[in-house]
Specification:
Elements: H1 4-26, H2 31-35, H3 45-68, H4 79-85, H5 93-112, E1 122-125, E2 129-132, H6 133-162
Antiparallel strand pairs: 1-2
Helix pairs in contact: 1-5, 1-6, 3-5, 3-6
Length: 182
């Protein structure tokens, strides 16, 4: 990595974009659609937002701080279980979005004060091996994009379902096919 400062600046721009993109995608979403799952094993838009909100504080933000502060161990997390344990579908959507935006702003402010060379420090992750602060930044941006793709797919399925029996599949393959009726 030759231009660490350029990489960090690019990451900051990418990370700063998420709250605006979520507001654009979800700003006028109908109340019922926030909690609707596109398929039984997939997350609703609200569950995706709550996941991003909690990851902001307990995963990426926290782990980046461990790296920057010279720590040696990451706290264990279990985001898959949080969905039910924390009753994501009972959360107020606007509050979840606002908290996510606040946490993201705080993490960006923290990152802005980090000397880029501190991001070379690495911590051993139990499952993935050694992760540097740079690895975490790359994963953080990728995590945002993966969940934006998930959210877009979820909204596509929910929209197609809303307009049934109209033939939305003319648009192209719709993710999360309907479960067969049993």
């Amino acid at each position: 990595m030759r231009d660490l400062t350029g990489m960090v600046t690019s990451v900051q721009a990418d990370l700063a974009r998420l709250p605006r993109v979520l507001d654009a995608l979800l700003g006028d979403l109908e109340a019922v659609a926030w909690r609707e799952r596109p398929a039984p094993t997939e997350w609703s838009p609200l569950e995706i937002v709550c996941h991003l909100r909690d990851e902001e504080a307990e995963d990426f933000g926290a782990r980046l701080r461990v790296v920057v502060e010279g720590g040696t161990r990451f706290a264990a997390i279990d985001p898959e279980r949080w969905v039910e344990q924390r009753a994501y579908r009972d959360t107020d959507p606007r509050a979840a979005l606002a908290t996510l935006a606040e946490r993201r702003a705080a993490n960006l402010a923290f990152l802005d004060g980090v000397p880029p060379d501190r991001l070379r420090h690495a911590v051993t992750h139990a499952r993935l091996g050694t992760l540097s602060g740079l690895d975490l930044l790359a994963a953080w941006v990728t995590h945002d994009r993966l969940h934006l793709a998930q959210l877009a797919a979820t909204l596509a399925r929910l929209g197609a379902r809303r307009w049934a029996p109209l033939r939305a599949e003319y648009a192209g393959p719709i993710p999360y096919g309907e479960s067969p009726v049993q």
